[in-house]
Each structure stands twice: as C-alpha cells, then as structure tokens.
Amino acid sequence: MKSFYRLICQLLILSMVWLPYSAQAGMIATDQVLASATNEANRDKVRDFVSRTDVQKQFEALGLTAATAGDRVNAMTQDEINRIAGKIDSLPAGAGSSGWWWAAGVLIIAGIIWYFWK
User: Fold this and answer.
1) How far apart are the first and last CA of the chain?
2) In 20-108, which ranges are E strands?
3) Which of 35, 40, 49 is nearest to 91 (CA)?
4) What's the number of domains the chain is made of?
5) Torsions phi, psi of 36, nearest 5?
6) Containing domain of residue 82, as a range?
7) In 3D, which of 30, 28, 76 has the Cα closest to residue 50?
8) What whole-number distance in Å separates Cα of residue 43 and Cα of residue 66?
C-alpha cells in the first residue's frame, strides 16, 4: 500500500511540473457584466424587430429579403445596434395615437355623469 501512495505522489509531482498553470482568477467589474448583458439584449431586440412580419413586408417593398436584412444586422457594430435599439424603444406603440382622445373621452363621460347628477 505504501508503494501505491508513493506512485500517486510521484504522479502528482510530475503533473504539477509538466502541466501549465493556465487558470486565472480575477474580479470582473459590475459595469463590464452589465454592458455585456445590455449589448446582447440590444442585439436580440434588433433581431426580433427585423424578424417581425410587418417589418419584413416593408423590407420586401424596398427590395430587401429577410435573410439579407438578418445578415446586415449581424454585420452591424455594437454602437449601431445600440443606436437602433434606442430608436426602437422610442417609437410610438400605437399608430400615432395621442393622449387627447383619452382625455376627451374622460371629459365626455364626466359631462354625462354631471348632467344626470344635476
């Protein structure tokens, strides 16, 4: 049994000498992790936007196939992706709807309630 332990010790010593120490540990800053996650999220947002059917129809009207548009998105730099993702966030959700219709509806309902109350 003692020879077995000696053999294991010799193998461990040899492996420590011959195998390179390539593992490194270091601190990763929070802003680096956040920037990486934000970059990936922005790239996914642009890919999702380009894959929408209404956007693909608009591309086809302009003479661009969906595959070509996807290739162009993949070829963009991260700054371009971040700029486009910011513009996607600022687009209106409804087709040009503004808040005055909502306010007008509330005023009409309030006027009807006031009329019947008095």
Assistant:
1) 104
2) none
3) 49
4) 1
5) -65, -45
6) 32-89
7) 76
8) 16
